Amino acid sequence: MARRCQLTGKKANNAYAVSHSHRRTKRLQQVNLQWKRVWWPEGNRWVRLRLSTKAIKTLQKKGLQTMANEAGINLNKY
User: What are 5-33's pLDDT values in tens digits?
Assistant: First the structure.
């Protein structure tokens, strides 16, 4: 499974690690992903998703069904 948020699609970002002498080497900034069990009222069951912490905060505001529709995800698979 790719390191990607299932609702927002967030993934790793390319960046530079800059040393004290200002030499730059490539590095990856990974997304803060968490396994989260979310109650899905429309399906009347729990759904286990791999979400970024930003998506978890947005999920509390918008709701699971709304975010899944925006992402084009069928929650019956999870």
Answer: 999 999 999 999 999 999 999 999 999 99
Are β-strands 45-52 and 33-40 bridged in parallel, bridged antiparallel, or unpaired?
antiparallel
Global pTM exceeds 0.85: no
* Angle, helix 53-62 to helix 64-71, in steps of 10 degrees: 120
Positive or negative torsion for Cα 50, 36, 72, 12: negative
* Residue 21 half-sphere exposure toward CB, CA atoms < 13 A: 2
For the CA atoms of 52, 57, 61, 64, the dihedral, rounded to the nearest 10 degrees, stands at 30
**Which CATH code, of 3.40.1160.10, 1.10.357.140, 2.30.170.40, 3.20.20.80, is assigned to 13-77?**
2.30.170.40
